[in-house]
Design a protein that fits this description.
7 helices, globular
């Protein structure tokens, strides 16, 4: 069956069970070395078809501003959406159980080779690949902003402003979230309110 991105809610599938959630998030977690965003989007949107691109962008935005690792937050949201608290816990267990064991094993192994030039070079190489994966996924998801209430160009402008604030001006993340994120939320609220009034009229 060829993979494709679901374009409407009618194209969506759902997890078959809590076991399906656990196994799917375990497999997702085991692939997520360094650049988990690319893996999450491919698995949940293109392969599993549990959400559309637009839903993924919205849920990822919420998961990103909540405390804790964003992919863990996303697993809780998806598990809870389909199976309530037991589903959220199953998805969380899948996200954490196998990686925890692997990280402990790798930490023990890395301790013996941490000072070698080969290990340090490998880590730098993986960092570059992770950055490339995240960038490629971000570019792929730009198309989902067409359906955003604020419009594509406003969203791109906000993303550029955020990049400048964090990468170039080195402003604290909390202030960037409060000012730019808060401003974006307020603007989206106004746009949606205006659209709702026009619909009622």
């Amino acid at each position: 069956m060829p993979e494709h991105t679901p374009s409407t809610d009618a194209d969506l599938q759902r997890p078959r069970s809590r076991t399906d959630l656990f196994l799917s998030f375990t497999w997702l977690a085991l692939q997520g070395f360094g650049g988990v965003l690319a893996v999450v989007q491919r698995e949940l949107v293109e392969k599993k078809r549990w959400m559309t691109r637009e839903q993924f962008v919205e849920d990822w935005a919420v998961a990103q501003i909540m405390p804790g690792p964003n992919v863990v937050n996303l697993s809780l949201m998806i598990g809870g959406r389909y199976f309530g608290l037991p589903g959220a816990l199953a998805a969380l267990a899948g996200m954490l159980a196998a990686p925890l064991v692997l990280v402990l094993l790798l930490a023990a192994l890395y301790g013996s080779v941490a000072d070698s030039a080969a290990a340090q070079g490998a880590l730098r190489g993986m960092g570059a690949v992770a950055a490339g994966l995240i960038t490629a996924t971000g570019i792929k998801l730009i198309g989902a902003l067409d359906k955003n209430a604020m419009g594509l160009w406003v969203c791109i402008g906000l993303a550029a402003l955020t990049f400048v604030a964090i990468a170039l001006l080195r402003l604290p993340l909390a202030w960037v979230l409060l000012v730019i994120g808060g401003g974006a939320c307020f603007w989206a609220y106004r746009v949606l309110g205006r659209a709702g009034k026009e619909t009622q009229a």
